[in-house]
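fyi for ur records
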Amino acid sequence: MSFSEIIQSDKPVLVDFYATWCGPCKMMTPILHELKTALGDKVTILKIDVDKNTAVVGQFGVQSVPTLIIFKQGQVKWRQSGVVQAKELQQVLGRV
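which gave:
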């Protein structure tokens, strides 16, 4: 399934644009795991390596990592750069 097909989902898709060399990006891994544990199948979480997926990065104008974008039915519903805690992400996902 392609990226554009995944983000067309009726349920929210949280995309974490990250880089392997990025310290704050490493901090997001346990946060996203906590979020997935809390929400289960209510959300799809996708990690995109910015160094390996330059087309998608360019398409969404990602300039810093980590950048988190929530898509629903192909539309950007929320976007933020930097580390975001699981509780905050859960609140945002509850609103989209």
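The domain at 3-95 is CATH 3.40.30.10 (Glutaredoxin). thats all i got for now
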